[in-house]
Amino acid sequence: MKKYLFIVLLVGFGCVKKPSDDLLKIKQLIIHDYETLSNVDIEGHRSNVTDDYILIEDGHIWDLKDEIEYLFKPTNIKRKNEFEFLNIDINSKQGVAIYKLISTFDDNGQISTKEWSESVVCKKINGDWKISLLHSTPVREEQHHE
C-alpha cells in the first residue's frame, strides 16, 4: 500500500505546473529589448525582433526601419524601466504578453515619468523567442469634461 501511495504522490507532484522556462524567457526578452532602447543599441534590438517586426505606437504603425529612425537617436537622457506583467499566454510557437511599463527619465537632474499599457506578440524561431509585434499606448491623465 505504501508503495502505491508513494507512486501516486510522485506522479501527482510531477503534474504541478511550474513557471515555464518560456514564460521567463519572454519576460527577459521584453526587459532586455527596452534596455536596447535605453542604451541606443540598434544591433541588440535587431537581434530581439523578427524580420517582419511591427511597432504600433500611439496610433503610428512602424516597421523596424521606421522605428530605428524615430526612436534610436543618441541621447544623454538616462532611462529606467519598470514592468508590471499582467498576463503571458504561451503556446509552443507563440506568446502574448500584456504589461504596464513605467519609465523614469533623468535629463541632467530633471526627472519625468511616462506610463504605457503594452502588449507584445512573440514568436519562437529556431528555439529563440523574438518580438514580432509591439502595441504601445501611452497612459494619459484623465481629462474631466464638465
UniProtKB/TrEMBL annotation:
InterPro entries: NTF2-like_dom_sf. This is DUF4440 domain-containing protein.
